[in-house]
Design brief:
By secondary structure, the chain is α/β, with parallel strands linked by helices. Helix content is 40%, strand content 17%. The chain is built from 15 helices and 17 strands. Strand 1 and strand 2 form a beta hairpin. Helix 3 packs antiparallel against helix 12, helix 4 packs across helix 12 and helix 13 packs parallel to helix 15. The chain is globular and about 70 Å long. It starts with 15 loop residues before the first helix and ends with a helix. The chain binds pyridoxal-5'-phosphate (PLP). The site of pyridoxal-5'-phosphate has 15 residues, from helix 5.
Amino acid sequence: MKEVFPSPPPLVHNQFEAVRDLFSKNVVPSYGRFDLALSHGSGSYVFDVAGKRYLDLGSGIAVCCLGHAHPAITEALVEQSKKLIHVSNLYFTEPQGRLAAEIVKRLGAGKVFFSNSGAEANEGLFKLARKFGHDEGRFEILTATNSFHGRTMAGIAATGQDKVKKGFEPMMPGFRHMPFNDLDAARKAISPATAAIMIEGVQGEGGVTPATPEYLLGLRQLCDEKKLLLFMDEVQCGYYRTGKFQSFQRILEVGQASSLSETRRQDACATFLPDGISMAKSLGGGFPIGAFWVRAPFADLLGPGTHASTFGGTPLACAVALKIFEVIERERLDENARKLGEWLKRELERLAKTYPTVVKNARGLGFMLGFELAEKIPAFASSDKPAAIQFTNRMHQAGVLVIPAGAQVIRLLPPLNLKPQEAGEGIAKIEEAVKSLA
Ligand SMILES: Cc1ncc(COP(=O)(O)O)c(C=O)c1O
């Protein structure tokens, strides 16, 4: 018999247990996973293996900047894969050169090294600092408490949180931590061995805490005075998430709650630059790619043979990243992150005002937002799971993906092309969950 309707796509129902079983038998259990097995996505939504739909306000922890299954990404992948997926970095390829030029164009005179991940981008900057200080015997890198810089050995040594170091001691030497947003503490922490300072523009894993404009400018001055490199880890907070290409540009543009005069702020917007910036996550929209940019005076420090990565900057990864730049600019997604992000933040602030026994405060910039849950929410008392995990589970039941940060903070890191009605749906569902806890 002739088929009148095309058969529906094969939907595997209630396969969650089967998928989880595969993991418990075969996958190293290093992640704390939620009871969700996801199967496919479209735009700002993902679907689990039972067909349930979720609004994805986490975008794979700030990765899927164009949402899921974006046709431009698919097209770039298909077209480039027909030509060249990979060649060694022994050779030149046009996509890598063009992508580096796009990054340099948005930042300033300098050069780019390509890696596969954020941790690897940071590793490159750590090596750059070592090379920079080497002949003077300087090697130490200062980072902030509560920071997060990746899970490699140098990454956990650089990360200012004990929980990532526990069980992996001794730590790689050469990293010390200082309180975040505290210039005096930074000055005091510098030793004769210090070569660089690295901070996040907005601490992500640490709970969505933006650096202040004064801190950024003060660190720049301090690094110039002491001949240190200033690095910014923009892996999570960068790439238009805050409304500008990198978060420091947005922080200085907003100048929120700062004591800077308007002339000083404007001057800083035009001139401030760190010496090195690490990027990853949204750069590939889900396809793995990382990079660091290094300012011109230091751009040739890592000469031939000093640093490498087999998969760094493959033609395939770079073609995808180039396409994403194109879409973001054409559709003014930076503006979307800024404007819709401001609306989302105001809504979260409203929730904090309306339900103070559940939401303590809201913070962040653009599409990097967080809200802190109150310490003693009665409905959470019977479980020993942190409040952020329990709240996230409730959001999953309601059909929304959010990302916990630490024990008390919920992060929203939506795709840059989130639509106003999707933002509205997200807030309505968050409010429902918050209300039920008040
Ligand atoms: C600020 C920051 N730096 C570095 C990393 C590490 O990136 P990756 O997981 O790609 O190695 C992360 C990951 O969450 C991050 O948020």
